[in-house]
Design goal:
homodimer, Rossmann fold, seven-stranded parallel beta sheet
Chain lengths: ~220, ~220
């Protein structure tokens, strides 16, 4: 019974996601859905990405949070268009919420749209938003076992950012186990090891973003 | 519409939770629901708690995970009764799942039951399991802003464990902001700062657990 309800919700969501995708493709935008646990570093990653790539790529942001506008305030300070969505308790963004945010953004001026999902490694994996790709962020202090324990998002993501590698020596994160599990679940995934707060290892991610957006008619 | 569906699910869950509570109270058990993001250190906390308190309190564990039996295997090595629940995609435990696990546990022999929820800071807050109290674990690398961003669980919890304090000097966690936000949201909460992996600061938590279980007729 519960499963049927969930299937209906997912079906309606997939319809809305398709409309978002059509709208975004029509405007020549590339959209990326950022998914992680709370505190893995999504907003810091966005800030540092905007600082490094913002001169070459025109970026827009949708911020998803259960409550507060803190993340949108942080991003807004960097001078890029940003919309804050508050889910008021829901544990993931859905395509209908994103459709509302798209109405408020200057889509004509944006090449690359980041959608920062609610901090949750589970449900956001099930809800398509109309994005071109999912980026999962795992931070070193969370532990190397998380790939096997939360496989859905690692299976669906195009990129995994292994963040906070500056904390590697202070934790028991097992890099070899991480890659073994990842290779079983999604051998196609691209992994970028970095520390968004120190800036270490960010170049290849920025490079990847430029390649990803260069097909857009606005590039 | 979606809200009504959710309200019905919650209502059915509250009924089951009431039955679990009645069963547990009848057997003289104290049950604690452990809630945190993935990787905040719930299982390590449990391991270290069992090592320190297991001689004085008879402990049982229900492990909730989306997939894998890794956590139950870790706990099982310590010689306490443990049941692994796999939610197969669901982002939280519910009372009906816990009721199934209770059938398999030797309740007559257990004084203190830990229920380790699925790693998620959002939905587990909404689903009562029949527990006597909720323990929220926040780890330092997640950041001090998480209390304001995910208020529901911090509002409902009886105890907050601030874990991984050994990483305080390597992160930008703002302890003052953490206590300010906590004081606004839940001034009654008891906070224990610790590092379950180094053992630092665990004594007062173990003390609290002993007080909490001493009212039980089995104590």
């Amino acid at each position: 019974m519960q499963i049927n309800i969930f299937a209906d919700i997912l079906k309606a969501n997939t319809e809305s996601a398709r409309e978002n995708r059509r709208l975004l493709a029509g405007k020549g935008l590339t959209a990326l859905n950022l998914i992680s646990s709370p505190g893995a570093g999504k907003t810091t990653l966005l800030e540092e990405t905007i600082k490094r790539a913002g001169a070459d790529i025109s970026i827009g942001v949708i911020e998803g949070d259960v409550q507060t506008a803190r993340d949108a305030e942080r991003i807004g300070k960097l001078g890029v268009p940003v919309i804050q969505l508050n889910t008021q308790g829901a544990c993931h963004l859905d395509a209908a919420m994103v459709a509302e945010a798209l109405k408020e953004l200057p889509l004509e001026k944006i090449q690359l749209l980041f959608i920062e999902n609610v901090g949750n490694l589970i449900c956001p994996a099930a809800f398509e938003l109309g994005e071109d790709g999912k980026i999962v962020i795992l931070s070193v202090p969370e532990g190397s076992d998380k790939v096997a324990k939360y496989p859905a998002i690692f299976e669906k993501a195009e990129v995994c950012i292994l963040n906070k590698i500056d904390l590697l020596e202070y934790t028991d994160f097992n890099r070899e186990k991480f890659y073994q599990d990842m290779n079983k679940i999604n051998p196609e995934i691209t992994v970028f090891e970095m520390s968004a707060s120190t800036g270490e290892g960010m170049e290849s991610w920025i490079c990847w973003l430029k390649r990803k957006t260069q097909d857009s008619p606005k590039a």
